[in-house]
Amino acid sequence: MRAAVIISKVILTTLATWLILTLLIALPALLPPRWEYYLISPASVALYLLAMLMVPPIACWKFRTWIRTVPGDERRTDA
């Protein structure tokens, strides 16, 4: 049960990170069309795709204390 909770928290963190990155790439669509080329250029799309791969492990590392904490578990995981 403990492993299932930890895995679900990792999946939740990854999906939340991807949702935030998707919203960030979609926001320039609200700007005038002449700005879209500068904000959504081929280089920025490549950086976005790289971020989709690199940011979820960084987010999981940042939230590692929360991920290891299982409600109702008596073990101390903050050491």
List the keywords.
single chain; 79 residues; mainly alpha; 4 helices; 0% strand
Put the structure in a nutshell.
The chain is mostly helical and 79 residues long. The protein has 4 helices and no strands.
Task: Walk me through the structure.
By secondary structure, the chain is mostly helical. 73% of the residues lie in helices and 0% in strands.
Structural class: mainly alpha
Helix content: over 70%
Question: Which word captures the global form?
Answer: elongated
Residue-averaged pLDDT, rounded?
87
Strand content: under 5%
The strand count comes to 0
**Whole-Å distance between the termini?**
21 Å
What's the helix count? 4
String of helices and strands: HHHH
Which stretches are poorly predicted, pLDDT < 50 over at least 5 residues? none
Rg calculated over all Cα atoms: 17 Å
Sheet with most strands: none
